[in-house]
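Forum > Structural Biology > Help requests

Title: Can anyone predict the 3D structure of Cation:proton antiporter?

Hi all, first post here. I have the sequence for Cation:proton antiporter but no way to get a structure on my laptop. I'd be grateful if someone could post the structure tokens.
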Amino acid sequence: MDIYAEFTLLLVIACGFGLVGMLLKQPLIVAFIVAGIVVGPSALDLVHHHDPIALLASVGITVLLFVVGLKLDLHLIRHLGPVALATGLGQLLFTIVFGWGLGVALGLGILEATYVAVALTFSSTIIVVKLLADKREIDSLHGRIAMGFLIVQDIAVVIAMMAMGSGGAADADIGVVYIIAEIAIKLVVAVIVVALAMKFLLPRLLQQVGKSQELLLLFAIAWGTLLAASGEYFGFSKEVGAFLAGFSLASTSYREAIGARLTSIRDFLLLFFFIELGSALDMTTLGDAIVPAIVLSLFVLIGNPLIVMAIMGYMGYRKRTGFMAGLTVAQISEFSIIFIAMGISLGHINQSALGLVTLVGLVTIAASTYMILYSRQLYSVFEPYLGVFERVTPHRELADSQEDLATGKQGKVIVFGAGRYGEKYALKLAESGIDVIAVDFDPEVTRSVKHPNITMRYGDAADQEFIDSLPLKTTHAVVCTIPDIETQLMLIDALKQHHFTGKIVIAAHQPGTRRELEQAGVSEIFVPLHDAAEHAAEKMLTELK
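Reply #1:
Sure, ran it for you. Structure tokens for Cation:proton antiporter below:
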């Protein structure tokens, strides 16, 4: 079969599995990984041209991390850097120590247990970012913290893989210290180069390429792949390089335009990453690893989130933020399998370790996908038992709230979702003299919206505790412009539990959700684009008359 026919067949099979997954209400990521397993050597063995697929997957990863970097700026890095570093390193240390102990208890040799323990520490940045992006939670506080410690993990992956090469050195300790120092120096140099580019090169370039949308898109992809390739060449991974490329453009006025145009390209290219991941899983190596894999999978699914919650709670974050961020480390990475394969090639461990880690990967990736997608429902179940992970006063997270307690403003209208449409809605009311409380889970949005009649609150519409803090008894109406139907329904349910007697107004961004909202008892439903078009048409008719 020639490469074009194989490529076409893979697309058709992936589309078929995706359609079945959608009809069964299953995550597309799981469907695509299963498709990769089916077309891989363990089943139909249809993939013979691995290099082109691997190339498309690599570009997809680059675009994904580039888009993530676009959403961050210097202020956010300074604000979230400490918690990301502490959480990332704390989780790594916890997983290695306790994972090694579990491995030894399960009968693994000392060196094999060490390899497996290190492999268990790596979480899949690509899968987590894709899930958070699909849920529109990349901009949330827990999403940004998760991105921070996942980048810390990516750097740790590089250090671990490079340290393997020094394992046979006469003085391994000196070798590892040298490697860490070398990577640290390279990262510092990379950051300095990117900072200089941000100040002197990129502003001039963007002024020119920004005149053409097509050229702007091409430049963004070229810049992202250039820094990704440079990152891999200098030894600290293409993921970190792509992230720095996006970060370098995050403070420019072009980031929204670039991000919007890259989204569809990212989703298409990532399909090949998931197919490649599934097809690379060798199911014949599983052997007798089922029982140890179940034990280690439970350790990853439960232990990793718990340590993240503990660290974030200690640092002053609320239990809900810690829970949501903790779920993002409840799986191992594709790099875990690569790491074990490298150990086998070096003769340090045998083939059975690969089967064990492969099975743990399948279980944790599938389970954590559901855990992240249904994180809010899971939180509502476990919330009564999570008080131990929250300080009496979660000072660090409270600092993100922009509520002005001194003014005592109650707000006649509460608007959930202060992004584009919600911000315009709130500003229109405020300019008419109406006191508005605007709520958003993006800390940057809560800092940017400013009007004397608007009180900004950092919070989540699906957070029951946050709803409790709102002055619902004196509020005339609650307006929700958040596009996620599940969040809308949870907000409506929370308002009913508080016996809210005011008006509930919901923006139905998808016309198909109108019936579901009507059944939930919403007072008023509007479709933003549809209503805006009708308003514009009515204005034109008035002028023509």
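The chain has 23 helices and six strands. The mean pLDDT is 81.
Shout if anything looks off.
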